[in-house]
Design goal:
Largest sheet of chain B: 5 strands, antiparallel
Radius of gyration of chain A: 28 Å
Distance between the termini of chain B: 26 Å
Shape of chain B: globular
Number of strands of chain B: 12
Oligomer: heterodimer
Order of helices and strands of chain A: HEEEHEEHHEHHHEHEEHEEEHHHHE
Helix content of chain B: 40-55%
Largest sheet of chain A: 6 strands, mixed
Distance between the termini of chain A: 101 Å
Strand content of chain B: 5-15%
Number of helices of chain A: 13
Structural class of chain A: alpha/beta
C-alpha cells in the first residue's frame, strides 16, 4: 500500500483523524461523569424559610447500599442516606449552596420524591414546578407530596424501617397505597396536567411521620453471638434504643386552587375524593351490623365513577355516579348473608357510607371553591360554549353547584363460606 | 487442468533455470534419465530408483517412497512386471505401450515425455516407469500416504447432524461431498497453486445451478494467484476476496460436508484446498454465517427461537461492554435507580474510569482466550482456573474491577461464542474494542456513530458480486423465510434469488403434511400452470423474473 501524501489511503486516514479530534475537542456537551462520582438524590424537601427557600436533600450514602457484599443479617436496614441542606433566594441558589459542602456532583435524575412544605405550598407551587420542568435531570415522573408543617422535618426525623431511603419508601408506598383506597401519590406530570386544564386544581396527598412501636430485633442474637466477645446475658443492649421508630404514612390530602394550597382533606375525605377520581383500586368499608354495635367488613374490589354536569332549567346540576362491587370478608355479627334482604341492606349501607365520604370531601372542596372532582372538565366536554363563559368564574360557580351523588353498590361474593360458622354447629 | 499449472509455472519463474530445464522431454537413454532425476532431487532419502531387467529391456521404476503405497508397488507393479518376463518385448513403442497397459494392474496411468510433468507426477505421489529406448515414460498412480481418518468437526459442532468433518486429504474430502451429492451435475475442477508447494485446489459446484459469471470470476482470480506456497485455505481466501481491508470474512468457511453440500444446492461454489480441513464457500454473506446446520435439522419452530438467541448474541457480543460504559459514564439516568446505586457502590473503590476498566478487562480476556487456544492440553485447566480466579474473584476483591464489569465481560464473552463461525466471531471481538473506546469518549452518540460506520461498511461489501448483507440490504421478501425465522421445508419453495435463480424452484408446492383435497386441486392447478420446463417455473412470478433478469444483465 502506498502511504504517502496525496494517496487515497493517506486522505482517508487524515480525514478520519481530523474528524475524531474535532469530535473530541469541539463537541459542546462533554458530560462524561463516572457513576461513582455522583451523589444520587433520593428525595428532597422544599420549604420556605422567611424570604428564603430551604432545600433539604436526601442522598443515597455511597457504598452503604447494594454491592451485594454485606449479607442482610438480622439487623434492620438502617437508613442508608445522608442529608444536606442549603438555603438561598431561589431554589437553584439553595441547590448550589449544597454543592459547596458536597464532595460529589449532585445527580437529580434518580430522585424519587419531592416533599413540599405547608408554607411553600400555601405560597404556591409555581416556582417549584418551573424548577423541575426546566431542569434537564429531574424527571416528570418524580413523585410529589405535601407535608403538614415543614417538609424537612420528615426528611430529618424519619428512620429507616423497610427501605434504605425515604425516596425508596415513598415509591414503594405509591404502588400499594391505592389498594387501601386512602390515597394516591401523583407525579409531577400529573400535577402539571391537573393544573393546566381549565379548572386548574389538584390534590396532593399528605405525608406525615407515624411513630410505630419499635419492633423487636429479630435475629440480632445470632449476629451478636457472632461477635462473640460479650457476655451471654446481653439484656442491656436494648436500653439505649428508642421505643418508637418514626416511619411515614399517608394521611389525608391538600386541596389546591391553581397552584396554591387552600384546604385540607382528612383521611376519609381523601378517600371520598379518590372514589370520584377513580383512584381507588381496592378499599375496605367497616359497616355497622344491623341492631347491635358490631361491624361487618366489605372489601371493595371494583369501583368506577362517572362525573357529569346537567342543565336543569337554568340551573347547572353536577352528577356523580359511582358503581362499586364488594366482597364480604369479615363479620362480627354472625348474620347470614345468603339471604337476599340481608345482602340488599348491606349494599345500601355500603352506598351510604361511600356517599358520606364523597359528600364530606365535596363540601370541603366547595367551601374553598376548588373543583378537584372534575366537574369543570365534564362541562368542558359536554357544553364547551357554556364552559367558555363560565371558565373565568368557575370557582364561584362550583361553590354554588348542587351535586347529586348516586352510588350503586353490589355485594358480589361472601368469601369462601356462605353461612357463618357456629361453635358446635354440626 | 495441468495446463493452468503449466502456464503458471512458466509465468511464475521466468528467469529461473528450472522451468526451462524441465520443459525438455526425456531422452531415450535410461542411464541419462536416471542421472537427470538423481541430479534434480539431489541426495533425497526417499527417492527410490528400482532398476529391473527383463529379457531384452531395461526398465526403471522411480518413486518417492514417502508418498506412495508400498503394497501397491509390490503387489501390482513389481509382480506384473515380473510376469512380463516370459514375453519378449519388441522395439515398437506403440506395441510396447499397449502391452504394458494390458498387463499392469494399475488403475490410472498416463504417458508423458516432458520432464516437468514427470517431476510433478513424482511429487504428487506417482511412480514413473522408464524404459530403455523409449521416448516416453509411464506415470502410475499409486499415491498413498498417512492421513487422518474422517473425524467429527472440531469447530463447528452440531447436536443433530452428521459427525463427519473434512480431513486434510483432498481426495477424502471430495469423496465426502460426492457421497452426499450423487448428482452428475456435480463438478470438480482441480488446479495446482503455489510455485513450490504445488497445492492442489479444487473448485466444486453444481453445473446448471451455479452462476457462470461468479464461476468465471473465481477462475480468473485463482489463476492470477502466483505465490510461493499455499499452506492453508486462508492464503487463497486473502488472495481472492473482494475487500482485503475488511475485518469481516467475505467467504464462508466450513469443515462440515453437509453444510457445504447445502450451499452447493443454493448455487454457491466451494473451494477445497489440499491439506486444509476447511472449505471456502462463495459468494459469502453475513447472514449465512449466522446460520448453523442444526437450524435445518431440528424442529423448525424451535430453530426460530434458537436463531433469535443467536442473532441477539451477536449484538450482545458487539455492544454490551460499550453500552455499559456509555450508560455508566454518560447516561446514568437510563439505568434503573437501584441498579445505578448498586453499580455506583461497586465502583466505589475502583480507581479508574469505566472505559479504562472495560478496556483492561477486555484485553485481559482476549489474552486469556488466545492463551487457551495456544496452550498444550495439559496446562489448559490450570490457566482457566487461574483466569477465573484472577478475573472473577480476586480482581473484584482487590478493588481493581467492579463486579458488574466482570459480569458484563463474561456475558459478552459467552455471547460471542454463539456465533457459529469462528471468523465472524473474531471480527466481532475485535470490533468490540473500538466500540468501547467510542462509548467511553462520546457515550451513546459514539456507539451509534460506530454502528453506523460498521453498517455502511457492511452494506457496501460485496462477495463475488453478491451483496454481503444479501437478503437484508437489498431486501428480498422471499428470502426472509430463511433469515431469522426458518420456515419448514415444505414452505421453502424457492432457492435464494441471488445465487439460485437459474433454477429457482426448490420444492414441489403442496408438500404440507396435512394436505386436503382442496389443497391437492390447487396444487395440481399450479403444477399445470408451471408447465414442465425448469425455465417456466420462473414465469409464475413476474416480479421475480424481472428481478432475476435484471441481475443477469448486471452480471
Amino acid at each position: 500500500m502506498v502511504f504517502k501524501a496525496g494517496s487515497k489511503y493517506f486522505l482517508y486516514v487524515t480525514f478520519g483523524l481530523v474528524a475524531l479530534l474535532t469530535a473530541l475537542f469541539l463537541s459542546g456537551c462533554w458530560d462524561r461523569r463516572e457513576i461513582n462520582e455522583l451523589a444520587f438524590l433520593s428525595s428532597m424537601a422544599v420549604d420556605l424559610a422567611g424570604e428564603q427557600r430551604l432545600l433539604t436533600y436526601e442522598f443515597v450514602r455511597p457504598g452503604a447500599t447494594g454491592g451485594g457484599e454485606r449479607g442482610g443479617g438480622g439487623t434492620l436496614p438502617h437508613r442508608q442516606a445522608t442529608l444536606r441542606s442549603g438555603r438561598g433566594e431561589t431554589l437553584i441558589t439553595a441547590c448550589r449552596q449544597i454543592t459547596t459542602g458536597l464532595p460529589r456532583r449532585v445527580y437529580l435524575a434518580h430522585t424519587n420524591a419531592v416533599l413540599v412544605g405547608e408554607e411553600m405550598a400555601r405560597q404556591g407551587l409555581r416556582e417549584l414546578l418551573d424548577f423541575i420542568d426546566r431542569n434537564p435531570e429531574l424527571r416528570r415522573t418524580t413523585l410529589i407530596m405535601l407535608t403538614r408543617g415543614a417538609a424537612r422535618e420528615i426528611l430529618i426525623k424519619v428512620q429507616g424501617d423497610m427501605e434504605t431511603t425515604l425516596g425508596k419508601e415513598i415509591s414503594g408506598l405509591r404502588k400499594w397505597v391505592q389498594s387501601s383506597g386512602y390515597g394516591f401519590i401523583p407525579n409531577v406530570n400529573d400535577v402539571f396536567f391537573d393544573l393546566s386544564n381549565g379548572a386548574g386544581t389538584t390534590v396532593l396527598p399528605v405525608l406525615e411521620l407515624s411513630p410505630q412501636p419499635f419492633p423487636p430485633l429479630i435475629g440480632t442474637a445470632a449476629t451478636s453471638s457472632g461477635g462473640g466477645s460479650r457476655g451471654t446475658g446481653g439484656t442491656e443492649g436494648r436500653v439505649e434504643e428508642p421505643e418508637t421508630v418514626r416511619t411515614v404514612r399517608l394521611n389525608g390530602a391538600g386541596l389546591f386552587y391553581h397552584d396554591k394550597l387552600v384546604a385540607w382533606l382528612d383521611k376519609d375525605q381523601a378517600r371520598g375524593w379518590a372514589w370520584v377520581r377513580n383512584k381507588v383500586r381496592r378499599a375496605v368499608l367497616a359497616l355497622r351490623c344491623q341492631g347491635n354495635n358490631t361491624k361487618v367488613a366489605v372489601d371493595i374490589t371494583e369501583a368506577h365513577a362517572d362525573v357529569s354536569v346537567d342543565m336543569q332549567g337554568s340551573q347547572l346540576q353536577g352528577k356523580i355516579k359511582l358503581r362499586v362491587e364488594g366482597e364480604l370478608l369479615e363479620q362480627q355479627c354472625n348474620l347470614e348473608f345468603t339471604r337476599e334482604e340481608a345482602i340488599k341492606s348491606l349494599e345500601s349501607r355500603m352506598a351510604a357510607q361511600i356517599t358520606a365520604e364523597i359528600s364530606s370531601a365535596l363540601n370541603q372542596a366547595k367551601m374553598v371553591g376548588t373543583d378537584v372532582f372534575g366537574f369543570g372538565g365534564a362541562l368542558h366536554r359536554q357544553q364547551p360554549e357554556l364552559w367558555r363563559q363560565l371558565q373565568g368564574r368557575w370557582n364561584e360557580e362550583f361553590k354554588k353547584l348542587p351535586v347529586t351523588i348516586n352510588v350503586e353498590a353490589k355485594l358480589r361474593r361472601t368469601g369462601m363460606t356462605g353461612r357463618p360458622w357456629q361453635p358446635g354447629a354440626r | 487442468m495441468l495446463w493452468i499449472w503449466h502456464r503458471l509455472w512458466r509465468q511464475a519463474t521466468p528467469g529461473k533455470q528450472t522451468s526451462n530445464e524441465h520443459a525438455l522431454p526425456i531422452t531415450t537413454r535410461l542411464d541419462a534419465n536416471i542421472n537427470y532425476l538423481k541430479k534434480t532431487f539431489g541426495q533425497s532419502e526417499d527417492l527410490v530408483i528400482r532398476e529391473i531387467e527383463l529379457p531384452g529391456k531395461k526398465l526403471a521404476l522411480v518413486y518417492l517412497e514417502t508418498l506412495i503405497d508400498r503394497d501397491v508397488v509390490q503387489r501390482d507393479i513389481l509382480r506384473s512386471l515380473l510376469a512380463l518376463q516370459a514375453i519378449p518385448l519388441s522395439g515398437d513403442e506403440a506395441k510396447f505401450s499397449r502391452l504394458i497397459r494390458a498387463r499392469l494392474t494399475i488403475g490410472d496411468l498416463q504417458e508423458e515425455r516432458l520432464w516437468s510433468k514427470i517431476i510433478t507426477g513424482l511429487l504428487d505421489g506417482k511412480a514413473v516407469l522408464m524404459v530403455e529406448g523409449y521416448s516416453r515414460c509411464l506415470l502410475l498412480s499409486i499415491e498413498g500416504w498417512e492421513k487422518r481418518p474422517v473425524e467429527e468437526p472440531v469447530n463447528e459442532v452440531s447436536i443433530r447432524g452428521p459427525r463427519e468433518g473434512f480431513a486434510e486429504n483432498l481426495a477424502t474430502n471430495i469423496s465426502l461431498i460426492r457421497r452426499r451429492l450423487r448428482a452428475p451435475e456435480l463438478r470438480f475442477e482441480a488446479m495446482n497453486l503455489g510455485r513450490r508447494t504445488h497445492t492442489k485446489v479444487v473448485i466444486c459446484y453444481l453445473e446448471g445451478l451455479v452462476l457462470k459469471g461468479i464461476l468465471e470470476e473465481l477462475r480468473r482470480r485463482l489463476q492470477r494467484i502466483d505465490i510461493d506456497g499455499i499452506l492453508e485455505s486462508g492464503y487463497i481466501e486473502e488472495l481472492i476476496e473482494d475487500a482485503p481491508h475488511s475485518p469481516f470474512p467475505q467467504l464462508n468457511r466450513t469443515e462440515r460436508p453437509d453444510k457445504l453440500v447445502a450451499d452447493l444446492l443454493e448455487g454457491r461454489i466451494a473451494v477445497l484446498t489440499d491439506g486444509t480441513p476447511f472449505a471456502l464457500i462463495l459468494p459469502g454473506s453475513l447472514v449465512s454465517q449466522l446460520h448453523a446446520p442444526d437450524d435445518y435439522y431440528e424442529r423448525w419452530p424451535l430453530s426460530i427461537g434458537v436463531r433469535l438467541f443467536r442473532f441477539l448474541g451477536i449484538f450482545i457480543a458487539l455492544l454490551l461492554p460499550s453500552l455499559y460504559v456509555a450508560l455508566t459514564t454518560f447516561h446514568q439516568e437510563m439505568i434503573p435507580t437501584p441498579l445505578a446505586i448498586s453499580i455506583a457502590a461497586q465502583r466505589e473503590l475502583v480507581p479508574y474510569p469505566a472505559v479504562v476498566e472495560a478496556l483492561i478487562m477486555q484485553v485481559l480476556f482476549e489474552i486469556l482466550i488466545e492463551a487457551g487456544i495456544r496452550l498444550p492440553r495439559a496446562i489448559g485447566p490450570a490457566i482457566s482456573i487461574v483466569g477465573a480466579l484472577v478475573i472473577g474473584e480476586a480482581a473484584v476483591r482487590a478493588g481493581l474491577m467492579s463486579a458488574a464489569m466482570v459480569i458484563v465481560i463474561a456475558a459478552t464473552a459467552i455471547a460471542s461464542f454463539t456465533i457459529p463461525t469462528f471468523g465472524l466471531s473474531q471480527a466481532v471481538r475485535m470490533l468490540r474494542l473500538p466500540m468501547i473506546l467510542l462509548a467511553g469518549f462520546l457515550g451513546l452518540l459514539g456507539i451509534f456513530a460506530g454502528l453506523l460506520v460498521i453498517l455502511i461498511h457492511l452494506v457496501s461489501l460485496r462477495s463475488f458480486g453478491e451483496p454481503y448483507l444479501s437478503p437484508l440490504a437489498p431486501f428480498i421478501w422471499e428470502a426472509q423465510k430463511d433469515l431469522v425465522v426458518r420456515v419448514p421445508w415444505w414452505a421453502m419453495l424457492w432457492r435464494p434469488v441471488l445465487t439460485g435463480w437459474r433454477d429457482l424452484r426448490r420444492i414441489k408446492p403442496g408438500l404440507h403434511p396435512f394436505i386436503t383435497a382442496r389443497d391437492k386441486n390447487a396444487q395440481d392447478e399450479l403444477e399445470t400452470q408451471l408447465g414442465e420446463g425448469k425455465g417456466k417455473s420462473v414465469t409464475t412470478r413476474k416480479g421475480r423474473r424481472k428481478k432475476t433478469r435484471k441481475l443477469a444483465r448486471k452480471r
